[in-house]
């Protein structure tokens, strides 16, 4: 089993807040809340956030070691994504065998495609539609987005390896090429939709949705210079706060005023969503911003840490409740479904923490304790961090042994660590200016 991610990192609770808002939008959309008719765009928020975080991981590896550590990177993704997905797929197939046996073969194909992370292309190839207007969604229909992200996890590191290791491209050249690729993706997204036709090909295609992910990657590519500049003074932090609030307002407007029938989603809407999300991510990643502080508070932080598990469970649970029942008492059943999903997500996350030694190690780090492997299972030894509080506030203040301007985000299962522009280098095990939260595990993906 691969070793846990290193300790030279800083946890940003505000990123969990972004995840929480995104997964709540998706949940509201699938529950049919009219105020969240555009909640399917929450997936796009996850895409842009993932593009930023994953690119920061890879850039950090290259700057630190001269390699992208691809084996470690891919193994870490598999360990943190696959077990939870396998549990949900097994439960759905068992439920289908007991209650909907005629659909078992079809669900088996969908589960196999989801496990191989090609669910989006399987749906497109067999002519199925994500927008089930009459029969309603299936319990595995939402897994297409995980496939898009996993395909990005495979292809993007290889492209970066070519750019840095083979062609020796300058960062500026890579930024321009990434911008070009994102632009082509958004153009293709707009071209592939036509009024009156099903939009699954445009909505689920990796090529058409790569634009949103690449917007996050673009932000990561320029963050080495942009991040410290944005956080260099109180006035600039206030400005980036305003930019982040504007981004949140834009995301909220899109969720409230669009729906799955809107052509505007494809013709500029997802582009606008991606830019708004990048603005919010930037505001959270800059040290000591007010928006990062607010998004990092409970209960958003708690929800964000479980967002991957919530996303996995929400549609199977919703499908298990008949559409007629939901229509009759939408908000009552919506509350019951949400409570059920949260319980299942907590159980799934707890099972993962209990079975994965690396997660127990990360829990030790999160409380400022050193992992002790002298026994059969990792245990927490005496704390190595004093956990003293210093000046400042916000998610960037929550740091234990960060290295300056270094990202360490593990998205998927997920550790949420960011390039935060630490003001000075600290030795491993030494706490920074803020609480001792370290780098905690957050449970999305996306």
Explain what the structure shows.
The chain is mostly helical and 446 residues long. It has a domain at 30-300. Helices cover 62% and strands 3% of the residues. The protein has 17 helices and 4 strands. The chain has a two-stranded antiparallel sheet with strand order 1-4. Strands 2-3 form a two-stranded antiparallel sheet. Strand 2 (369-372) and strand 3 (379-383) form a beta hairpin. The radius of gyration is 21 Å and the shape is globular.
Task: Sum up the structure in keywords.
446 residues; two-stranded antiparallel ribbon; 17 helices; globular; disordered N terminus; disordered C terminus
CA-to-CA gap between the ends?
23 Å
Number of helical segments with 4 or more residues: 17
| Overall body shape | globular
Kindly report the average pLDDT value. Answer: 82
Low-confidence stretches: 1-8, 355-446
Number of strands: 4
Estimated structural class? mainly alpha
Strand portion? under 5%
Largest sheet composition: 2 strands, antiparallel
Helix content: 55-70%
**H and E order:** EHHHHHHHHHHHHHHHHHEEE
User: Which strand order do you get reading across the main beta sheet?
Assistant: 1-4
Using the CA coordinates, give the radius of gyration: 21 Å
